[in-house]
Amino acid sequence: MRSTQKMAALAVGALVLTIGASPASAAESPEPLVTIAPEDEQASRAFMTEFGVAADVQDALLDKARHGQSLLADSETADPVSVTEFTRDASDFEVATFEDGSISVVEREIPVVVPEGTFQPRAVTGCTVGGGPTYTTYNNCKVHYRTPIFSYGFYTSFTMTGSSATISTANQMFHEYSVGHLRDSWNLTVARKTGNAANPAHVQMRVTYTLYPGVGQINKGVRIFADGLKYWQQSY
Q1: Which among 11, 21, 67, 222 would be 20 to 30 A from 89, CA to CA?
Q2: Where in the chain does DSSP place strands (E)?
Q3: pTM for this structure?
């Protein structure tokens, strides 16, 4: 069926050129370079709808992706036109909006205080916080980064003492979608296990993608830092 449709389209195109259309007019609507899986498009649209991106902007952004163009939200040099922070459900969100309408969202789980008398904090599901007079432990906290093109993250646990922080675990990498890109490799590294305000402890996830069908590669990632008093996330 696809071959038949393509032959019909070629025949119509030949007829248009015969009656006077210029080759330049055909070049104004280039054929898509990138194939987007339906499930990836659905996930991307669900993400954009969740954070208020209008339907016509969604169409324009996905059209850019189909033609192998990067969104500003995925650029290492583009600055957002606005940044909004808010809390919803059990997470803090930072939403950066860019000139082309694309967005990037960093989600940080709000730790749930472990009930007094709980001897096994890891038995409490989700991100939890506990500890004692001189330290605070954060267990199984999600680090999640999303744009209309990429969605990935991991879970980590760490301890803060006020003057230093120590990463205890980093695991459970997850990958929700990559629109028009193929994931080549990914890894999770404890870049600095113990740190302080001058040199924070941090964990970083790195993902290498190939732009289908092999146009080039792009490296993406997200980190979480802890310095003893606070912790924060950063995409790169």
Answers
A1: 222
A2: 82-88, 91-97, 103-109, 112-113, 128-132, 135-146, 150-160, 165-178, 181-192, 194-195, 201-211, 216-226, 231-235
A3: 0.77
